[in-house]
Amino acid sequence: MSVAEDHRQESVLVTGGTGFVGRWLVEILRKRGSRVTMLARESGRRPEVLPNNVEVVGGPLEDFRFLSGLFTKQGIDTVFHLAAQPLVTVGRESPRETLETNVAGTWHLLEAMRLSGVHQMVLASSDKVCTHSFDMSLGQTAAVQIDPYSASKICAELVTRTYASTFGLRVAIARFSNLYGGGDLNFSRLVPDVVRSTLNGERLMIRSDGKSRVNLLYVKDAVKAFLLVASRLEADPSLSGRAFNFGMANEISVLDTVDTVLGLMGRKDLKPIVAGVSMEHGNSQKFDTSEAREILGWTPDYTLNEGLKETIGWYRSHFEQSAQDMVTKQAMASS
Question: Which residues are identified as catalytic?
């Protein structure tokens, strides 16, 4: 059965379905005929118009009774677990919120699945888990340098693997490198920041020396990976508890990323301002995607240039529409 057919007629829950990646995933699932429930912490975060086979439900992941009732009511078969506090900086500022959402939210979800007999789950994780890998057998005096966000993702993976090995839940983990694409309105991230700055005719401020290397993956390739993991997990339950890394074969420096975007936008004159401040984790670790390629047969469909071209086009349209909406509101207010 092809990936395009895997979730047809299934009842699917997408946690974090109103977020950046979740919206892309929901749209593909909707087009393929799945009945989709989007779980959002805030019930007000929903599109104004929803198709017949998509529903948004507001509620917290940390509420076990709510989740159990949701599974029973919706008859969920498969869960795509994307809901998380996704930022390292926020993790440092609000560690309790980060750990509650990313760790407690995950185990409440898994326990509700176990008791409700839900079919399977794919957990979204991060390359930060690989960057901060460490030997659990190290002595008591060994120092482990790790931030709250990375710790939360490691714990979420460990809890997920526990439910696979102890209770036989069919779950797998999809780890992603740095995702980019249309719909990401978090302008603290590199790609949205440089595109917005360039559209505004401004030079981007790079706080580091720009030499750090990043692995950038287009959001459509991430969605393809999610669906492939679910498909292969259903066909081969022995993959349960496994984690697969998804990213590009090569990394690119921050400076080269900015230069590529400027070239695609025809604004090479907007050279970035490089502050030259050394960052805590300057050089990223190589992200090994060999198992995803060899075991799952996964390869990205988009080159970096192709993904960036589509992304730039999305932001152009978004900001043009936002400006038009603002003019319309001002005209209505003055009439």
Answer: 149
